[in-house]
Design brief:
With 424 residues, this protein is α+β, with helices and mostly antiparallel strands. The chain is 28% helix and 26% strand. The strands form six sheets. A five-stranded parallel sheet has the order 3-2-1-4-5, sandwiched between helices. A five-stranded antiparallel sheet has the order 12-15-18-22-19. A four-stranded antiparallel sheet has the order 6-9-7-8, with helices on both faces. A hairpin with a 4-residue loop joins strand 10 (195-202) and strand 11 (207-209). The chain is globular, with a radius of gyration of 21 Å. Bound molecules: adenosine monophosphate and glycine. Glycine binds at residues 215, 230, 288, 292-293, 295.
């Protein structure tokens, strides 16, 4: 087979991990990342095109005869980048705009799950403030208020009491805190239990799971502090048995893939099921239409198969489970964040020690840039140190060993990544 030029869209740690894995494929000759970061610049060629500049990306893909485009973030997927690349005759890995509604409209996803009998929290959808408040007054237990549209991970308020829920409804429906994304809201039953991220690769018919993973969303140890994009992750969680993964595939993933195909909107790409392991069994918290961040930084190091070949097979409707071989053992990643993250933080802070990290650990960069030949911070989540081990404890210890080599002023990270108490 001829070697491919590949275009990867995005600029986070997830994209660095994707570039790292795709660069190992014998099918891939050259990788461009739009716009990328200082980490992807080492493995690939960054091009200054924004992730939402679909016309610019199509023009670039044509000019460079790109044989595979991989889209990292949700916003371009929800905006229909896959439809437009496909219409232009350019091979692209990811769901169409219609299929991406599983993430871009929580109301769509909830109605779909109810129709397909996929286990999830009970919910009702509202656009009218008075009706929503009336429903809340009679809700049988604790609730979660969710903006239906994309709200950059901030549109979910897990409520401890009715007053908090009432305030959230006002904020979303009356004050339009998330703009159009919160013109429609869900009042959802609050579920309890450990969470799990299961990412599956699918060609629209066949779905194959990657190793299950868990991320740590809160900013500080012991799950204290505000929610973040994710302060670390590990895979596989010891409490998640192969039998549990089989059950999730049978009760959640297969009906989702079948249901989307039956509707004439087959889902092709990576489907990320955010799950809660409740006392009633696994239930869906949310779907994402993309790879998770930082889950990707622990899942891809455990993938033995050729990711470019897998993605091409998904596009061609030829995915088979044998392609998705995985390594034994575990992987853990510790995110190092800027001072103040997830609030406001400085940028341009010099980072040292990146080259001192032992070569069997991987530093996936996220918010980094190069200024005057020096790598500096450019975002909240700056990087993640990822390490494999024969077991989780070894992987975690090695990732923390890697962290000790890296310094930047104000760096903070959790010290309890991979600890079971922080998952409950
Ligand atoms: P989402 O953006 O829907 O994944 O929600 C963000 C986070 O809010 C999830 O990872 C959960 O921790 C929490 N969450 C969302 N929905 C529920 C629910 N129904 N019950 C309990 N927690 C929830
Ligand atoms: N780690 C959570 C996410 O990618 O949405």
């Amino acid at each position: 087979m001829n070697q491919l030029s590949l275009l990867l869209v995005g600029s986070g740690g997830r994209e660095h991990a994707l570039a790292w894995k795709l660069a190992q494929s014998p099918l891939v000759e050259r990788i461009f990342v739009a716009p990328g970061n200082a980490g992807t610049a080492v493995l690939a060629e960054n091009v200054p095109i924004g992730e939402n500049d679909t016309a610019g990306l199509i023009a670039f893909a044509r000019e460079k005869a790109i044989g595979l485009t991989v889209v990292g973030p949700e916003a371009p997927l929800a905006a229909g980048i896959v439809d437009r690349f496909t219409a232009a005759g350019l091979p692209v890995f990811g769901p169409t705009q219609a299929a991406a509604q599983l993430e871009s409209s929580k109301a769509f996803a909830k109605a779909f799950m109810q129709e397909m009998n996929i286990p999830t929290a009970r919910a009702a959808v509202f656009t009218d403030y008075q009706e929503a408040q009336a429903y809340l007054a009679h809700a049988p237990g604790p609730v979660v208020i969710k903006a239906s549209g994309l709200a950059a991970g901030k549109g979910v308020i897990v409520c401890d009491d009715t007053a908090q829920a009432a305030a959230a409804l006002q904020q979303m429906l009356l004050d339009r805190a998330f703009g159009a994304a919160s013109d429609e809201v869900l009042i959802e039953e609050r579920m309890f239990g450990p969470e799990l991220s299961l990412l599956v690769l699918t060609d629209g018919v066949t779905a194959v799971p990657l190793p299950p993973a868990r991320d740590h969303k809160r900013a500080y140890d012991h799950d204290k502090g505000p929610n973040t994009g994710g302060m670390g992750a590990y895979a596989p969680p010891p409490d998640v048995t192969p039998a549990l993964v089989d059950k999730i595939m049978a009760t959640i993933i297969q009906p989702t893939i079948q249901g989307m195909a039956q509707r004439g909107t087959p889902y092709v790409g990576v489907l990320y099921a955010g799950l809660m392991l409740t006392s009633d069994g696994p239930k869906v918290v949310e779907f994402n239409c993309r790879f998770g961040d930082p889950e990707t930084q622990v899942v891809l190091p455990l993938l033995a198969g050729d990711l470019a070949a897998i993605m091409l097979a998904c596009i061609q409707g030829q995915l088979s489970p044998e392609m998705v071989q995985t390594h034994a053992g575990a992987c853990a990643a510790v995110v190092m964040a800027s001072a103040g993250y997830p609030g406001s933080y400085p940028t341009g802070v010099p980072i040292t020690g990146l080259n001192d990290v032992p070569s069997d650990m991987i530093v996936f960069q996220a918010g980094t840039a190069v200024q005057d030949h020096q790598t500096v911070t450019s975002g909240g989540r700056v990087l993640a140190v990822s390490a494999r081990g024969d077991d989780l404890a070894t992987a975690v210890a090695r990732a923390y060993d890697g962290v000790t080599h890296i310094r930047f002023a104000g760096a903070h990270y959790r010290t309890d990544i991979g600890k079971p108490f922080s998952t409950l």
